[in-house]
Design a protein that fits this description.
alpha/beta; six-stranded mixed beta sheet; five-stranded mixed beta sheet; 8 helices; globular
Length: 265
Amino acid sequence: MRNIKETGMLLALDIGNTNIHLGLWDGARWRLSWRARAVADKMMDEYAILIRNFLDTAAVRPDEIAAMCMSSVVPSLTPTFQELARRYLRLEPLTVSSETELGIAIAIEMPEQAGADRLCNSVALSRLFGAPAVCIDFGTSTNFDVLSANNAYIGGVIAPGIRLAHDALVSRAAQLHKVDLLPPPQPIGRNTAQAMQSGIFWGYVGMIESLLKRILSQLDAPETRVVTTGGLAPLFNAHIDLIDDFAPELTLDGLRLIYELNRGT
């Protein structure tokens, strides 16, 4: 296997239900970060084209990739990308799970059920922000992941993502149509679109604030940092005072840190 110390090139993939987040770490920074749509029944060769285009954009050859680390919450895509790494990159990928050395404790019931992306986020929280901390990851679902003061992942919350809530409302109400997921001019909507925006957006803000207050109350640690990540995070950060930081590459950083911890084993 090629040595990352020589090339500095790590390919990191966070495979989610809606998107695949790709990152290329050059030893000092994320040279390139992409989000592509996840399609469960897409063929391996099709994803190989995605990887090739990603590397071409970064002006990097496949033989310059020294390692690949991935997290996946889509069981049908996990072996697809594992085989892709072996066939096209000639690498054995590190696939994150609860059995991977993480550098933090997993203090939950049935650790094997913890999503790999949530474990990556918790590792990145620990290393980059310290403990205790809470991560809110805005994706298909909105996940709250909690790191205790003694540096243990102790669980969190899984809520429907705002796009799921929006799509469910539109699909079940004949006279309601899709609206932009933005705050309306005022809480009291003066038309149907604004009323929907108010209910979806401000209702979601209220849910996040309420859950955060309950989580922080249970932790009872005033120094707890609240960090957001995910594509929709910027939409909410300006409207929730309890949020301290935004880390768009938090999951990728978790993958990078987990690889660095495990590369000698």
